[in-house]
Design a protein that fits this description.
196 residues; mainly alpha; 12 helices
Length: 196
């Protein structure tokens, strides 16, 4: 019970310790999912991060020398189940929840092309856009290349973070001649040079 209360604590160090401790509990996914529905914004974010840890690897490693042996990794089934709990948050009304959920999913064992990343790449929030473009790249979600190109065109080199996210996505997603031809038609020469 203390860990749940601590995930809304004012001190970030306390929140992070509670989050890491919760990943080791058998009911961690249920507790983190409940935290994502909290009225407290910090608790929601820590719930998302906790589900992200479970989706990426399972329980967090215990700090210090208390841990001996190989790093445990949860089963693919458990990691996939945790990742699926994050997917509904991609449509949340709060932009920061959407941003953190898509960031948490970028290393999850889900197929990127099955996620609603296209809508997020063109989200009204620039933060959500950049995280979504990077997630599309890391998840190999090549069907969202047109959205990445549209994001870059709309950005028109105004925001360097969006430019980086877009060029990162292009670099990871353009593996065929057909996808490369989209860039030559759509983007300025400068961006083509950055991406190669």
């Amino acid at each position: 019970q203390m860990c749940i209360r601590d995930s809304a604590h004012a001190d970030q160090r306390v929140r992070l310790r509670a989050q890491i401790e919760l990943t080791r509990r058998p009911d961690a996914a249920d507790r983190f999912e409940a935290a994502t529905k909290s009225a407290n914004a910090l608790e929601r974010v820590h719930g998302i991060w906790g589900l992200g840890i479970l989706a990426r690897r399972g329980a967090a490693i215990a700090p210090g020398s208390a841990w001996k042996g190989p790093t445990p990794v949860a089963s693919l089934e458990d990691r996939t189940a945790a990742a699926r709990r994050l997917v509904p948050l991609l449509a949340h009304a709060d932009a920061e929840v959407r941003a953190q959920a898509v960031k948490a999913l970028e290393e999850a064992p889900l197929k990127g092309n099955d996620l609603p990343l296209g809508k997020l790449i063109l989200d009204p929030s620039l933060r959500v856009r950049s995280f979504a473009a990077i997630a599309a790249a890391r998840l190999g979600a090549d069907k969202f290349l047109p959205e990445v190109l549209a994001m870059l065109k709309e950005n028109a080199d105004a925001d360097p973070v969006l430019r980086h996210a877009g060029s990162f996505a292009i670099d990871h997603l353009c593996k065929t001649a057909q996808s490369l031809s989209l860039i030559h038609i759509s983007e300025p020469t400068r961006l083509r040079r950055i991406s190669y």
